[in-house]
Hexosyltransferase (Sinanodonta woodiana), 343 residues
Amino acid sequence: MLRRITILERRLSHHFSTIFICGIFLTLGMLIFMSFCNMTCEDKMSTALHKDVLEDGELKNSNIRSLIPAKKISTFLIILIMSVPRNKQNRAVIRETWANSLPNNVILKFVIGVGDLAADGKILLNEENDYYKDLLMLQFFNESYTSLTEKLIESFKWIDKNVDFQFLFKGDEDTFVRVSVLLEELKSKPKTRLYWGFFDGRAHIKTKGKWQEKDWFLCDRYLPYAVGGGYVLSSDLVHYVVINSKVLKVYKSEDVSVGTWLGPLDIARVHDPRFNTEFRSRGCFDVYIVTHKQSEKDMRTLHFNLKETGRLCNQEIKYRNSYIYNWKVPPTQCCIRNDSSVP
Ligand SMILES: *[C@@H]1O[C@H](CO)[C@@H](O)[C@H](O)[C@H]1NC(C)=O
Ligand SMILES: *[C@@H]1O[C@H](CO)[C@@H](O)[C@H](O)[C@H]1NC(C)=O
């Protein structure tokens, strides 16, 4: 009888110690797991928020911060204008003309690399941004003419991470945009897989000068691309570029690069002659939505015209013919400028 009890006790105590030891390990494991989770989760959050605060200077209340979703900024259309630190005047003209009183579903950002900018230059830009809140300063990008494509990728990365948007418009400092018309048109455009602009499928490979592409071998011409004075991408395509950016070949020309990256995709390439976005302006037509190669004076005139008369041009004028892109023929025959009725 006594022996049995001792055996039972031993067994029980054996079980207890096993359970006890297991319990300790389990608790330790959970503690370690939780501490790791807390570290990474909070760490990421606070870095992201810290960055947001630095980059936008808008978030101040820490109670609100904890309620903010992953992407702080939400908008229908984000407009990127590629700029450089010294071109303050170009930015001023855009703010005073076509970007004056943008609707609240549109965000405009001037993209500027400040990686190697001297301290006093940074101070000036920060002051400008404190006032206008429209600079996207890329901290790790150094401005140079040879890396506009990297700059585009860097800005796409920032937007993909921080902005919840439907469409992106990319333009230059000498691009005049009729934002209200763009918005109206976008209402009836596909929400995804959209690549909208003025397409060229038979552009010769640049072998000389600033834009020469030494490494191009894909074809005798560039793949069809929307010329860089202004084009629209839906957010899924921006995301596609970002997640593949490590393996995408970077070409000198940013617009050629985008066309090439999107080349194999099943997307809507919408050619629109109302995008006067070639490297030389085709003139002025009242139906134009985007007009490239505009001087400060041109921009003010176009803006004044729209305000006073509701029409873009002093007088409609054509410097050379345009074309309707023919997607049914080989690219070399895509773009014949023989129809004078196309604006
Ligand atoms: C940018 O310039 C800074 C300062 O000259 C340099 O340290 C940095 O490596 C450069 N970054 C890139 C990406 O070239
Ligand atoms: C322009 O050229 C194309 C191809 O040669 C032809 O099919 C089309 O009819 C021409 N259009 C005009 C308006 O001449």
Summary: The chain has one domain: 73-333. Residues 115-116, 142 surround 2-acetamido-2-deoxy-beta-D-glucopyranose (ligand 1) (CB under 6 Å). Residues 31-66 have pLDDT under 50 and may be disordered. The chain has nine helices and 14 strands.
